[in-house]
Amino acid sequence: MKTKKFLLTGAVAFVAAAAFGMPVSAAENAPAPDSTTVTYTNNSSIDGDSGVWGVVVPTAYSFTDANLTSTGVVELIGINGYTLDELNDSLAVQVKAKSEHSYDVVDGANTIAYSVKYGTNTVDKTTAVDADSFTTDAVTELTKAAPKTSTTATLSQKGTVKGNYTDKITYKVSHTGDELK
């Protein structure tokens, strides 16, 4: 089994600034009647060993007092002109994860626990990790037949102290099986 480590360069940031920001009057917070809020979602891709497949991971999970969950997707893709259809049926990609702050979002001395569910596997501060702090077991395994895993990050509670709470998740991928047909 080949193993190759990748650090997610676009840090997965957990930002609760909206939930913990300074209070302002309703007039200051009210949306303009002639405006629309626009959001942009961007995903990072971690390339596999040979440059024919990659794994897309979420670039961010965001929480607010009104929404203590955030969703994403981890997905196997073909890269560099290769498609998922060209990958071998025997290819199985294992994805492992580690949290910089052991699955706490942190602002100075203040912390709030969170967890991330990858399909049916939940990862939190009680999850077993190896010597490099990556999960001992894969958080998900991706194949040509099952290339996507939905993710849900859940903040354990609302913050009691205002702040900008963050953490960073780093991913590592490895594979078994043949890469191309």
**Bulk shape:** elongated
Radius of gyration: 18 Å
Q: Distance N terminus to C terminus?
A: 18 Å
Largest sheet: 7 strands, antiparallel
Mean pLDDT: 82
How are the secondary structure elements laid out?
Blueprint: E1 2-5, E2 13-15, H1 17-20, H2 26-29, E3 43-47, E4 53-58, E5 60-62, E6 69-78, E7 92-99, E8 104-107, E9 110-118, E10 121-123, E11 140-143, E12 148-155, E13 169-176
Parallel strand pairs: 2-5
Antiparallel strand pairs: 1-13, 3-4, 4-6, 6-12, 7-11, 7-13, 8-9, 9-10, 9-12
Give me some keywords for this one.
disordered N terminus, 4% helix, mainly beta, 13 strands, single chain, 41% strand, seven-stranded antiparallel sheet, 181 residues
How would you portray this structure in words?
The radius of gyration is 18 Å and the shape is elongated. It is mainly beta. Helix content is 4%, strand content 41%. The two termini are 18 Å apart. It has helices spanning 17-20, 26-29, and strands at residues 2-5, 13-15, 43-47, 53-58, 60-62, 69-78, 92-99, 104-107, 110-118, 121-123, 140-143, 148-155, 169-176. A hairpin with a 2-residue loop joins β9 (110-118) and β10. Strands 3, 4, 6, 8, 9, 10 and 12 form a seven-stranded antiparallel sheet that branches. A four-stranded antiparallel sheet has the order 1-13-7-11, with no helix packed on it. Strands 2-5 form a two-stranded parallel ribbon.
